[in-house]
Design brief:
Layout (H helix, E strand, L loop, with lengths): L4 H52 L10 E5 L6 E7 L5 E2 L1 H8 L2
Antiparallel strand pairs: 1-2, 2-3
């Protein structure tokens, strides 16, 4: 009983083909995974930029004045966000919107 070299060559070619298909499949999976992660990252980036614009710009496009935690000069309450106006006045968001509009 002797080994047939043509069957051996066919089996080797099949194994090499399977390894190449596996490598290509792995490349496709990695590329798809990376593309999905990139799309998710860009979506989150755009949402974060939009949220930052909503926090820092009024609806008319004018930037809000600097803000930090403090005491409102009109209502006398403490807030996490008080706008410090150039005139020296400090206003909570409600009083600021009532004075300068939404």
């Amino acid at each position: 009983m002797t080994a047939d070299l043509s069957i051996f060559a066919g089996n080797i070619a099949l194994l090499i083909g399977l390894l190449i298909a596996l490598a290509v499949g792995l490349f496709v999976v990695i590329a798809a995974w990376t593309s999905i992660k990139l799309i998710i990252w860009r979506t989150r980036e755009h949402r974060a930029e939009a949220a930052h614009r909503r926090e820092t710009l009024r609806p008319d496009g004018v930037p809000y004045p600097p803000a930090s935690r403090g005491l409102c000069d009109r209502c006398g309450q403490t807030f996490e966000k008080v706008y410090y106006l150039p005139s020296g006045e400090r206003l909570c968001p409600d009083d600021y919107n009532a004075t300068y509009g939404q």
